[in-house]
Amino acid sequence: MSQVVAFPTPPPGGPPALSQGAQGQARGAESPFVRQVRNRLGDLALAISTGSAMALVLLILFVVIGDVIIHGSARFSLRFITSAPEQGMTAGGIFPALFGTVAMVVLMTLAVVPVGVATAIYLHEYAPAGSPVTRAVRIAVNNLAGVPSIVFGLFGLGFFIQFVGAGMDRIFMGGQKVFGQPALLWAALTMAILTMPVVIVATEEALRSVPRELREASLALGATKFQTVFRVVVPQGLPGILTGTILAISRGAGEVAPILFTGVAYFLPRLPATLHDQFMHLGNHVYVLSTQSPDVDATKPLLYATVLVLLILTFVLNLSAVVVRSRMRKRFAGAGH
Amino acid sequence: MPMSTTGDAKMKMEVRDLQVYYGSKRALAPVSIDLPEKNVTALIGPSGCGKSTFLRSLNRMNELIPSCRVMGDVRLDGDAIYGPGIDPVVVRRRIGMVFQRSNPFPKSIFENVAYGLRIGGIKDRGEIAGRVEKALRQSALWDEVKDRLADNALGLSGGQQQRLCIARALAVEPEVLLMDEPASALDPIATAHIEELIDELASTYTVVIVTHNMQQAARVSDWTAFFYMGDLVEFDRTNSIFTKPTQAKTEDYITGRFG
Predict the structure, then answer these.
(1) Which of A213, A231, A334 minimises the CB distance to B101?
(2) CB-closest option in A214, A220, A332 to B59
(3) CA-to-CA distance for A222 and B38, rounded, in angstroms?
């Protein structure tokens, strides 16, 4: 709708009173000019209010990130991310925490992707659509996404450590306590359950976006359902599946609550070597540095630098999700011809 | 009683009392028709008349729609395709289909045509390459794409994509080719290409084509079936239908009085 009549922009603060006055008039008595002015002012008020909300969000984001970058970059160096904490964590680096985070996330990914993708494929391709069971599973998945992360931590403690782990000790270890305690494996599995809904929902969404025409093309050529799903539908949905996976990884890298009871350590003199070792974690390290330090002033720069590393890690993961998605999309759209 | 005025020609498919329901809504009244071998049969009629539903019942594509029920008997060379224990996958390998909107896979031109062969279990590279070339030649696309078989099929023009889909269907060497308004989304030149192609295909295949373009039906088909509101109104040689239809409805439709 192009405006034909040019109208000088009123100063901010004017519009509400003016437009209210215009609204007070009987509609029939409004001249086209008044109506146009009123629409124009309404547009302007909306643009200003939504724009300032956006500006506020941006401002907060810049303040937070800027603060972290300014204070964190002082101690951020290659040495910082490749050396271990020293002198009661008032000096040194964060390598064990970085290593532990990556190890936990890799294990988590190995657990969550096959199960999550398989669940989504079953739900979308095989489960009878609209059946009560399918609906119940879908509702359960969505609810799982809303469960507070600390509850997952308690679940991990109760299920993986006290039930599965202790059971494994009784059966395989002759009662010796090996698996029945917090460990990298249990933390990774707990985190896998936390991120499961992300993978399932993203994969289902990806499968749903595959055009019906492609399925029909495959089936009409005499393909079985299995062939159609694995040769056409899943490859076509791959960008979405990958995006969901990366978002799950990013979430898993940043969460702390689920691993508090299930495997993370305050400080370890050596790196985890087996699945039943405990591990250090970046997010937990931030908490430890900010609450448990014997010398707050000495720890503060380390704390900032650690937060910076954590932010960079999640940012890079999220960015790669975006890049993967747009690249695959281009490839599938047949661009470049 | 089947509407059969087809004389001595050998029948490729025989349809008896075929009915299709979507939920409780009947989309196709009992229809009986014989489709002559190596002929082109056109299905015409206004939108929603059941012609596409009928077409999709011939290779069991309708059953992909959850609420759809199909009743009646459809035979291919005397074998009941809806018979007990008949695998729709086998039916669809013998009865290929080309859709209204070209739907190439987002794969290379070569892999699109090879898809049906690969899922059919053919592993021999030489055989696949040979049959891909043959199918692309049959669909008159070979000369245009032979130097870029590895390119993504989505880079082809609309008309080329549709001919690629025809090649893809031909590669598995079906006996019957169903075409659901294959040229309705194409420009006149691409449409002319497809029509020439249908003409050539009829020497090898039994072709059934849905079209809402009556000139097209008149140009490409040997036989024409006119559907109206889920009913088969008239089925006859194309030149009879278009010159001296026996039903008033048919005459009204082909003379453009409705539809």
Answers:
(1) A213
(2) A220
(3) 21
Asked if A216's CB is within 8 angstroms of B105's CB, the reply is no
Residue B179 pairs in a beta bridge with: B98, B209
- Chain-chain contact of A214 with B172 (C-beta, under 8 angstroms): no
Average pLDDT over residues A44-69: 94
Q: What is the DSSP letter of B3?
A: B
According to DSSP H, which parts of A174-254 are helical? 184-208, 212-220, 225-228, 234-254
DSSP string, B131-189: HHHHHHHHTT-HHHHTT-TTSBGGGS-HHHHHHHHHHHHHHT--SEEEEESTTTTS-HH
Give how far B89 is from chain A: nearest CA, Å: 5
Both A63 and A200 in one domain: the answer is no
Q: How far apart are CA B157 and CA B171, in angstroms?
A: 21
Q: Number of structural domains, chain A?
A: 2
Low-confidence spans in chain B with pLDDT less than 70: 1-8, 259
Please state, in angstroms and rounded to a whole number, the distance separating the CA atoms of residues B70 and A35.
Answer: 59
* C-beta atoms of A222 and B90 within 8 A: yes
CB B219 within 8 A of CB B202: no
Chain A neighbors of B99, CB-CB under 8 A: 213, 216-217, 220
| H or E element that contains B21 | strand B11-22
| Closest partner CB to B116 (pick from A221, A332, A336) | A221
What residues of chain B lie within 8 A of the CB of A223, using their CB? 89, 115-116, 119
Question: pLDDT (tens digit, 9 = 90+) per residue, A113-129?
Answer: 999 999 999 999 988 87
Give me the residue label for tokens 């659509």: A129
- Residues A141 and A203 sit within 8 Å (Cβ to Cβ): no
Q: What pLDDT shows up at residue A336?
A: 35
Interchain proximity B106–A231, CB inside 8 Å:
no
CB-nearest partner of A216 from B61, B155, B172 = B61
Nearest CA in chain A to B167: A221
Q: Looking at the structure, tell me whether residues A62 and A116 fall in a common domain.
A: no
Domain that holds residue A260: 80-333
d(CA B190, CA B188): 6
How many pairs of residues across A and B have Cβ atoms under 8 Å apart? 76
Q: Which of A27, A53, A72 is the last residue of a domain?
A: A72
Report pLDDT digits (tens) over B220-244. Answer: 999 999 999 999 999 999 999 999 9
State yes or no: ipTM above 0.85. yes
Say if the Cβ atoms of A219 and B103 lie within 8 Å.
Answer: no
Could you give the domains of chain B? 11-254 (3.40.50.300)
